[in-house]
Design a protein that fits this description.
Four copies of one chain form a homotetramer.
Chain A (H helix, E strand, L loop, with lengths): L4 E2 L4 E6 L5 E7 L9 H11 L16 E3 L3 E2 L2 E2 L4 E6 L21 H8 L15 H15 L4 E9 L2 E2 L20 H16 L6 E8 L13 H10 L4 E6 L10 H4 L3 E3 L5 E3 L7 E2 L2 E2 L4 E7 L9 E4 L5 E4 L13 H23 L17
Antiparallel strand pairs in A: 1-2, 2-3, 3-7, 4-7, 5-6, 8-9, 8-10, 10-16, 11-16, 12-13, 14-15, 17-18
C-alpha cells in the first residue's frame, strides 16, 4: 500500500520533486524477454515535454530518460526497471514568494497541514513534473501490452469549447499543439487560449482516452474492477476533478433500452455490439470493445491574477503566481492519461492470466471452456 | 491485492452471491475498544433494504446482520470483525431464462468470458445484493470516524431531472422514497418513475455524497490520493459510469480565478474558504472543508423491453428480463455511496496517523510543527 | 496489508475466536472451474481435529466445514470462497481464572498491551483453533496445485528425541498419533509423552514438510522469494520459534564444496541433483527438486505446573492453567504446516504464470526461450 | 505485492544489478520532519563495504550513497526518499565463463528457468551487491525508530565454531573483521578462515541480531506477526537457510515450565521477565524485552573447488568460479541482518500506531485503557 506506488503485478513506484536533482521510477513485474531500450520510451516523453508551444510552460527540460536496471542486451530480464530523468532547468528563485504562502486551489496548504513541511520549489512533489515518470512507465506498459493494443488520447474540450465529433481525425491530434482531433476547433482554441494566457488566467479541459485491442476479461470484480482502477488512475493525475467511462454522466439521463448495447455474433462468432455506452467495460470486466474514458482537468491554480489567501502565519495576503506555468494543464495531461490507462491495462493483463490462464483472448462464441 | 478486498489499514473483504445461502464480509484493522453491536449496523442496512417502496425491487430480504467475531462484551478487540446476512428470499427460477443468455448492459457476458462459468441465479456475484455488505462495513467505518464526521448522500438527478439546490433540505432525504433533498422534485420524480416502471423500462441517476467534519491531511500523494481512492470506491459500485469531486466536470469550463477557492483565517486561526470548487481535496489531501463527491448510475440493465442479444452458443436472440428489479438502481445506491466514502475516510484516517501522528486535526494557523 | 490475510493472488483471510459462535475464512483468487466441495476439505480438517488421541486436547469439535460462496454446481467460479465452521464445544468457564492473569509464554500480556482488551475465553483470537481455517484453505490450495503436487508433513523431533531417518516411512505417518514417519520412535514417544502429560508439563517438537512435484520457477526475487514466504508462513503458526529450508542451520557448518548440490542432465534433459542441501530453492526460486522445510514448535504455554506471573493490576501471582490443552502442540501443527506450504505454493504458482506465462514446467535442458 | 518491495507503511523498493551502472532504492512512507542526510546513512554502508579485510571480496566499491529526493533543508518531507549508489568496480570479464553455466548452489539455473534470461555479470540481480540498498534503507529505518531503539548484530558461529557467550562484548564487534563479540574466538576464526580461503573453499555462519528498546505492541496477528515478518526479512537475505527467534530450535527440546519466561512487575510497575526464551515476541507481538533473532548463512556457492554441473545446452561440465568472492558471506550479512530488522520494526511501529494510537509505549501495569 505504498503511497507512491500503483499497480499490483505491473507496478510503478515514482520518486522526485520538481526542483530536485532528478526524478525517477521503478517499474516492477515486467515480463522478461521483451525488447526494451530508451528509444521505446523517449518518443512518449517527447510528446509530454514542456516548452514545445506557447500554450505550455516555458521551462526547458530535455527529459532524457535513462534505463538503469532491468534490461540485459536490449531485453527485459524480469527484474525491476529503474528509469531516471535529470532535472536541468530548475529556477527555484521563481518560487521564493510562495515559500510561506498558500496558493488557492494548489496543494501548498494541504502538504503543510499533513506533513508540516514542504519543498516549495516548483511545487516539490505536488508538481506535475512527476507525471513525466508516469509517461515513461506507460511506455513500458505499451511494450507489455504489445502492438495489438492501441491507446490514444485527445483533448475534447478546452474551457467551455468542445470539439465536433463528426470531424474527429486521429491523425490531426499530432498536428496541433492541443492534441485536438478536430482541426477546426483547434484553430479556434488557439485564439481563445492566447487570450486566456495574456490575461494571466488559465482554463480547464476534458481529455478522452480510447484503448483498442485489449482482450475481454480484464478486470477483477468486485474490488479490482477495471473501471474502478481506471477511475483511480485518472483521478490521481494532477488537477483532475472528474472521470467517466463510456456514456458516463450522460448515462444518468438515458432509459434502459437506449443505454443497452445490443449484441450480435458475427460470421466469425465474435460478439459485436451495436453501440458502446458501456465504454468497453461491463461488471468491471472488459468486453473486447474499445475502452473509452474521459477526465476533466481544472484550470491551472498558479495564475497571475491575484487571489485572496493566507500565509503560514495566518496573515491575510494576495497571491499572484509568477513562475512558468501552463495556461491549460489539460493539454499535457493527454499523454499522461494515455500512460495511466496503459499501466492499468498491463497490470490487469498480468492479473487476468494469473487466475484464468486459459481464458479466450477474443469474445468468440460459442464459449467452450473445459473443466480444469 | 485481493480482488474482493478494499482498503489498506481499514480493510473490507466481501463474499457471497445473490442466491447463495448468505453474504458476508470481514472488516479488518478496526481499532480496539470501540463500542459496536448489531444495533450500530442494522439501521444503515435498513435504509438500503429492498422492497420498501414501489420504486425498488420487490425482493423481500430482512437483511438481519450478525457479528460473528471481533467484538467482546460489546467492544471491538482489534481482531477481524466478521459480519453475515442470510439470504432468505431467493427465487432462482426467475432467472432460468438467462442462464445461457447475455443481457445487454449486464455482466453476464463478461463473467463468462473471464471465468468460463457463472452463477446466473440473480446475477450471482455481480448482483447489487453484494452492496449490502458495503453498507454494513460502512457502518463500522462510521464508528471508527466517530460522531464528529457526518456522511450524507442524496439523489440529485433522476433520469434527466435534477433537483433545485435552492430547496436542498437534508431532513427531506428521509421523507421520500428517493433520498431526494428537494420535496418538490421528489414528487415530480414519483410520477415520472411510475411511468418508467410501467413501461418496463428503467432510468439512471446521479448521487451526491457530502462528508463533513473530516480532518485535514487525509490522503497520501501521489498514488494514495484521497480523491483517487474515492473515485475507485464509487466507480466500483454496480452500474456507476462517472465520478466527480467538487466542481467536477464543470471545472473544465472555469477560468483559474473563478475556480480558486480563496482563503481567509478566522479569528480562531482556522482557515476558511470562500467557496468549495475543490470538493474538500487539494493535491489529493483533504483540506478540512466538506468533501463533496458525485457519481452517475446508468439505467438498470435488466428490463422488460426486449433487446437484441446472443446466447452462449452464439445464437441471436431477444432478451427481456422478468425477475424483480429496481426501475432505478440509483436510488438504493445512495446509502452504498455513503458507505464507500465512510470506508475510504476510515482507511485514510488510520493511514494518516501512522505516518504523521502529530499532524493537526484542524486547519489552524499559524502552523507550528516541531522537528521530530 | 491486512493483518488477517496472507497471500497475494491466492489469498486467505481468516476470522473468529476460540469461543465465538464460529470461525471462518475467505479464499480469494482461486481459479475458476476447479471441482470443489466440502468433501475435498473435510478430510484434511479431520487430520487436525482435536480429541483424537490422549496426546491432544480433549475439546470435542467436529469441525464440519461449509462452503458458503464461490462455487456453483460443484465448480469454483473465480469469486471468493467463504468457508465456515461452527464452534460447538466452548467451555468458557475453564478460562475465568485467566481473564485478568497473564500466562508466561502466552499471548495474554501482549494482546492486552497492544489492544487494551482481549477475548480471554480460550485464548480468543490467539488460540490455535484459528489454524483450522488454515487447513481448510490449504485444502483449496491443493486443488489449485493439482494432483501432480504432493505436500506431506511429519513430526521429526518430539522434545529431545529425534526420529531415525533410516526408518522414514511416509505410510507410517497415518498409523500413529504423532504423524511420525518412524514406527519405532513413535512407540518411544508415546511412553515419553504420557509422562510429560501426567506431570502437567508440555514439550516442544520439530516438524518437517516436503512438497514434491512443484514446478521450477516459483518465487519472485528479491522480496517475494519462495523461501522467505515459506518462512513467514511457518513462523506465523502458533508457538513456532524457528524455520529452516533444506540443510538449514546445519549449512552454517558446511564447506562450500559439501553444500553444493551437483547437477547432471538426465537422458530426458531434465536436470537432476546429487543432493538437496538447498531444500529445492535457489535464489528464492524453486528448482523442481522437493521443497523441504522444517519448523520448531515450543512447548505449550498453558501448563498445570505453576509459574510466577502478574495480573492486570500488577499483582504478583502464581499461574497454573487448567482448561484442556495439548501436551505437545507440535503434533497438530503437522497438518497446519502442510496447509501453509500449500497456500504459499498456490499463491506463487499464480504469481509465476502472471509474469512468465511461457516458463517451462520442468527443468529440461537445453533451455530454448523465445524473445517475446 | 511488488516482487522488489518489502514493508507496508515503511516500504522499501530496491533496483539494480551487480554490474549495471548503479543500484538504488526508494524508501516510502517515512514520517516527515526527521533529520536525514547522507551522513546518517554512509557509516552503516561503510560497515558492509567489501574489500575491508582479506576475509571479504576484494571488489573495491566506495559505496557512496546519494539522496535524490524526499528531503528538504535536511529534513524528510514525507515523500519518497530515493537513494542511489554508483557501481564503479565492475569486472564483467571475470564472469564470462559462467554466462552459459550453472554454478551449484547458485541462482544461475533458477533465474534461467524462471525468466529465460539472466544478466550473468556478477550474478546480476541475484548478487549480494543488492544488499547495500537494504543497509541504506535500514539506516533510514533507524532514524524513524529514534535513538531509543538499538539494533546490533554479531557473528556467533563461523563454520562449526561458535563463540563463547560468557565472553560476549558488544564493543569487541567493531574491533575484528568478523563482527565477532568474542575476541578469543575471533582470533581462532582468522586462522581457520585463512585456511578455508587458501583452499579455494568457503564456509557458512550464524548471525544473531538483538533489538533493544522497541516498545511492546509491535506486530499484528494473525498474518502480520512481528516474528513472521522478521522470518521473511531474514530468510530473504542472500544465502540464508534458517531463522529462529529467542530459544528457536532449542525450544523444541524444552519442557513448558523451562521455556516459560516468568514475569514480575517492578516497583515502577513495568513488567520484567526472568528469562527471554520468547526472544521478545509473544503471539506475534513484541513484549518490550529485547528482540532476539538468529539466521544461518550457507557457505558461498562461488568457489574455486570444481564441482559437477551442466550448461545451458545440457552438457555436463565442471564449474570452478574465479571472480572475487567472500570466503564467508555470513560476515557481511551482519549489517544486512541488522538493517532488515530495523526496517521491519519501523514498518510495524507505523502500523501499530495507525490502529492503536493510544497504546502504551512501555509494559507498565496496571493497564488502564479507556473505552474509545
Amino acid at each position: 500500500m505504498s503511497h507512491n506506488t500503483f499497480g499490483h503485478l505491473f507496478r510503478v513506484t515514482t520518486w522526485g520533486e520538481s526542483h530536485g536533482p532528478a526524478i525517477g521510477c521503478v517499474v516492477d513485474g515486467c515480463p522478461p524477454r521483451l525488447r526494451l531500450s530508451e528509444a521505446d520510451i523517449q518518443p512518449w516523453l517527447d510528446r509530454r515535454r514542456p516548452g514545445q508551444s506557447r500554450f505550455t510552460t516555458q521551462r526547458q527540460e530535455p527529459d532524457r530518460v535513462r534505463i538503469l536496471s532491468g534490461t540485459f542486451e536490449g531485453l527485459t530480464t524480469g527484474t525491476p526497471i529503474a528509469l531516471m530523468i535529470d532535472n536541468v532547468d530548475q529556477r527555484s528563485k521563481d518560487y521564493g514568494d510562495i515559500a510561506e504562502r498558500y496558493r488557492p486551489g494548489h496543494a501548498d496548504l494541504t502538504y503543510d497541514l499533513k506533513y508540516g513541511i514542504r519543498d516549495w520549489r516548483g511545487g516539490g512533489r505536488s508538481s506535475a513534473r512527476e507525471t513525466a515518470m508516469r509517461v515513461a512507465a506507460g511506455a513500458v506498459a505499451r511494450v507489455v501490452l504489445g502492438p495489438g493494443v492501441t491507446i490514444r488520447g485527445a483533448l475534447v474540450q478546452l474551457g467551455p469549447y468542445t470539439i465536433s465529433r463528426d470531424r474527429w481525425d486521429w491523425d490531426e491530434v499530432a498536428r496541433n499543439p492541443f492534441f485536438c482531433p478536430d482541426a477546426e476547433t483547434a484553430a479556434a482554441w488557439a485564439e481563445y487560449l492566447d487570450g486566456v494566457r495574456k490575461a494571466g488566467s488559465s482554463v480547464g479541459a476534458v481529455i478522452e482516452v480510447v484503448a483498442e485491442g485489449a482482450p475481454p476479461g480484464l478486470g477483477a470484480p468486485i474490488y479490482g474492477k477495471l473501471d474502478a482502477d481506471i477511475a483511480a488512475a485518472l483521478m490521481g493525475i494532477n488537477a483532475v476533478k472528474g472521470v467517466e467511462i463510456g456514456a458516463g454522466f450522460g448515462a444518468a439521463s438515458l432509459h434502459g433500452e437506449d443505454n443497452a448495447d445490443e449484441m450480435r455474433a458475427g460470421n466469425d462468432g465474435i460478439v459485436r455490439f451495436g453501440s458502446n455506452h458501456a465504454g468497453g467495460i461491463l461488471g468491471g470486466i472488459s468486453t473486447g470493445q474499445p475502452i473509452v474514458a474521459r477526465f476533466a482537468v481544472k484550470p491551472t491554480s498558479s495564475i497571475l491574477a491575484p487571489r485572496l489567501s493566507v500565509d503560514r502565519e495566518g496573515h491575510e495576503i494576495d497571491v499572484s503566481t509568477k513562475g512558468r506555468h501552463d495556461p491549460c494543464v489539460g493539454i499535457r495531461a493527454v499523454p499522461v492519461g494515455e500512460a495511466m490507462i496503459a499501466c492499468v491495462l498491463a497490470d490487469h493483463l498480468l492479473r487476468h492470466r494469473a487466475q484464468t490462464p486459459d481464458a479466450p483472448t477474443e469474445a468468440r462464441l460459442p464459449l467452450d471452456f473445459r473443466q480444469v
